[in-house]
Amino acid sequence: MSILKIETARAFQPLLQPARYKGAWGGRGSGKSHFFGEFLCEECQATKGTLAVCIREVQKTLAQSSKRLIESKIEALGLGSGFKVFNDKISTPGDGLIIFQGMQDHSAESIKSLEGFRIAWIEEAQTLSARSLSLLRPTIRAEGSEIWASWNPTRKQDAIDGFFRGPQGAPKGSIVVKANWRDNPWWTDVLEGERLLELERYPERYDHTYEGDYARAFEGAYFASLLSEAKRKGRIGVVEADPLLPIRAFHDIGGSGATADAYTIWIVQWVGEQIKVLDYYESIGQVLAYHVNWMRERGYEKVINYFPHDGVNDNNITGKRYWDHWAEAGFKCEPPIPNQGRGAASMRIEAVRRLGPKMWFNETTTEDGRQALGFYHEKKDETRNVGLGPDHDWSSHAADAFGLMAICYQAPAGSANFNRVIQYPGMGYA
């Protein structure tokens, strides 16, 4: 067995011990990827014949993988004689192998090709779906096998974050470390200059980028200032429904497939000049009955439901329209909002911004939704520095449902039922 002596930052030293699961999370500049890249080379050199796979959720080309990083580590460590670099893989001593794959392309059958692999390193693990994690874990099952993950947390709901940092804690026997820029003993003046520039220019995203905090707001996000103002003016806190006024649910349609979009629901009540945002729901890959059960468990059987134009689309499992499913389940449903055509996303964004000063958020039950709203941002062509409209990512589904609410909103004075004469049934006299 050949042993390499590699200087390791103190934050990562616990990861040198054997463990089934190892995780390193934190912000930019901590050296997470560099540590795992070197450690992988060391493991392949020390244990001949090691089979290892470097994984991302989506990997369309090898340029999106860690292959170049590992190649640089092989050269820096002087391992060129035992490692051979090919276009799509790296051979290691003793007929070992390092390959690079995207989990989104795998099925329950194709993932079996990884059986016998001893190490799986999940890069950018915050993007890994729950489906991919559930496929990978039982596949990497060789004796002494290990699954590594490195990530900068985005949301509490991310599968990898829930696995290592969720309410149940990390799996027994696993090793998890937090590492940020201040844990990097090789921090340079150039890196420090970039960090300070980020703090000065983009304070709303600094904590996520450099301190490993969850993403609260994306620089240039459409609703970042709206949420900041709501927090500053005390409109995020304990918000309760008026028991005498209707509650409304605004949906964005998702699917039930493994790679389907999220299904999101905002629970809102219009009270005088206030828009009370009471609750938020999101799930991925679940059948409609799952969403219905959530509504019933939360006591929302009597809410008025609003759907986007695709509410009349057929469900991909039952073949029945989404709107019909909810109506047949006993929920009151307004007709789906017609397709607003070109510029619909911009209309929703402007409607939300216009109504921002009226919005009050119940803090605990809308946290996940507010996080999505704070991240919802414009996609840009970096080459031409031009905007391409809203980026369709994990945050867009919450934003679309919220925008639907803003489009549907009617001020009380403009509502047909506002100030109407109340007709009491004839009950006789006492």
Give the class from helix and strand content and strand pairing: alpha/beta
Q: What is the CATH topology descriptor of the largest domain?
A: Nucleotidyltransferase, domain 5
What is the CATH class of the largest domain?
Alpha Beta
What radius of gyration results from the CA coordinates? 26 Å
State the helical fraction. 25-40%
From the spread of the alpha carbons, the general shape counts as elongated
Q: First CA to last CA: what distance?
A: 98 Å
Strand proportion, as a percent range, falls in 15-25%
Mean pLDDT across all amino acids? 89
Strands of the widest sheet, in order across it, are: 3-4-5-2-6-7-1-8
Label this structure with key terms:
430 residues; alpha/beta; Rossmann fold; Nucleotidyltransferase, domain 5; 2 domains; eight-stranded mixed beta sheet; seven-stranded mixed beta sheet; 12 helices; 17 strands; elongated; disordered C terminus
Structural account:
By secondary structure, the protein is an alpha/beta fold. The protein has 2 domains: 10-183, P-loop containing nucleotide triphosphate hydrolases (Rossmann fold); 216-411, Nucleotidyltransferase, domain 5 (2-Layer Sandwich). The protein has helices at 32-46, 67-76, 130-139, 159-165, 189-201, 203-211, 224-232, 288-297, 322-328, 344-355, 367-375, 396-408, and strands spanning 21-25, 51-56, 84-85, 89-92, 96-102, 119-122, 146-151, 175-178, 236-237, 248-252, 262-271, 274-284, 304-306, 332-333, 359-362, 378-381, 386-390.
